[in-house]
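Q&A FORM
Asked by: J.P.
Topic: structure of Photosystem I assembly protein Ycf3

PROVIDED:
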Amino acid sequence: MPRSQKNDNFIDKTFTVVADILIKVLPTSNREKQAFTYYRDGMSAQAEGEYAEALQNYYQALKLEIDPYDRSYILYNIGLIHTSNGKHGRALEYYYQALKRNPSLPQALNNIAVIYHYRAEQATEKYQSEVAKILYNKAADYWNEAIRLTPTNYLEAQSWLKQRENI
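REPLIED BY: S.T.
REPLY: Here is the structure written out as tokens.
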């Protein structure tokens, strides 16, 4: 049974019904509709913490989806799962791929910055100050770009950047 038919809560059911209606009425190809169905099922599985199932759905969606903008969100979500699983290197690969297709994806920029900041903190703990400095600078670059795109978001990053200027 497809995940879209297993949703138990009201919001998921409502989203599924609306999405199914849109899929039926929008003038899109069967391939695009199928890609969206996999993407939707991936989001549902991801929301429930079923990461392996979500990845399977996202990979299927990637095989079918041809629109670069839509692919960027699939790639971004794959990056999120790898981040959640602690596979930061893999996550970065997917975030970079997402940005290549959609440079105006501030959440990918933010997540890249978070990973670099985390790695900088790890380097600091290992007394690798030069490595930490490079990683902090990378984090700052990505956060600055994310903030440029969405100035009212990422308040913690903005605060960190301001503190950093005063050091």
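FOLLOW-UP: The two ends are 57 Å apart (CA to CA).
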